[in-house]
């Protein structure tokens, strides 16, 4: 019975993420922003006014209903458009690594939430800047490609761009972790894993990122489930640290060449 409210919140968040994902894929970011306007307005006045429990629960619910309504309207219009006659349906196998990565990411975040619940909130809020930095990485990489004349020079510049974007993403998470009383090491390593894996997926390296994240999730999960050494407290930082190193190496190997950015 105690898990009822938590289950409802998780279901609502899952519904929102599914609907928001549809809107983002279909290029309807402005509609998503409009649907979230009640929640944004409520958050803006929090420093000066206490809305009370009714509005605290009502505004997120209103934003969720607006997002679901807008998504239904957009999907209705998209499905009404005649299908392209010569288009080929993507193979199911092509989508498999993305689903496996989602499963691995969910397990890693779940393990973090067991130890540090507030860290999950910080991680969720950081997804917006993470997406923006993925976009900026592309622009900075193209600029680096234009500014270099040799493969070795581009590799060095590409490593600098990767380090800069990763640092820009992780730096604000450190004070956020300290503010919420979370373990900074676990949060930053998990965030590094998720961001670098998303970067690789954005450039088509879905299987490598999924495999590394699955190995990290499986290893950390096994340690927690079977109470193996080094223990639950260290399982996630160790697994994410190893995964982050592997993902960064893959990113440098793949994205340190001019071809993916041409």
Keywords:
12 helices, 2 domains, 262 residues, mainly alpha, globular
Mean pLDDT: 87
Number of strands: 0
Count of helices?
12
Tally the structural domains.
2
Which outline best applies? globular
Beta-strand percent range: under 5%
Into which percent range does the helicity of residues fall? over 70%
Global structural class: mainly alpha
Query: Which residues sit in consecutive blocks of at least 5 with pLDDT less than 50?
Result: none
Distance between the termini: 56 Å
Radius of gyration over C-alpha positions, nearest whole angstrom: 20 Å
What about the largest sheet? Answer: none
> Helix and strand string, N-terminal first?
HHHHHHHHHHHH
Written description of the protein model:
By secondary structure, the protein is mainly alpha-helical. It has two domains: 1-87; 99-262, no CATH class. It is 81% helix and 0% strand. The chain is built from twelve helices and no strands. It has helices at 4-25, 29-35, 37-45, 52-80, 92-115, 117-125, 127-147, 151-170, 173-180, 184-202, 206-226, 232-255. Helix 1 (4-25) runs parallel beside helix 4 (52-80). The longest helix is centred in the first third of the chain and has 29 residues, at 52-80. It is globular and about 60 Å long. The model has no long low-confidence stretch (mean pLDDT 87).
Sum this structure up briefly.
With 262 residues, this protein is mainly α. The protein has helices at residues 4-25, 29-35, 37-45, 52-80, 92-115, 117-125, 127-147, 151-170, 173-180, 184-202, 206-226, 232-255.
Secondary structure elements and pairings:
Elements: H1 4-25, H2 29-35, H3 37-45, H4 52-80, H5 92-115, H6 117-125, H7 127-147, H8 151-170, H9 173-180, H10 184-202, H11 206-226, H12 232-255
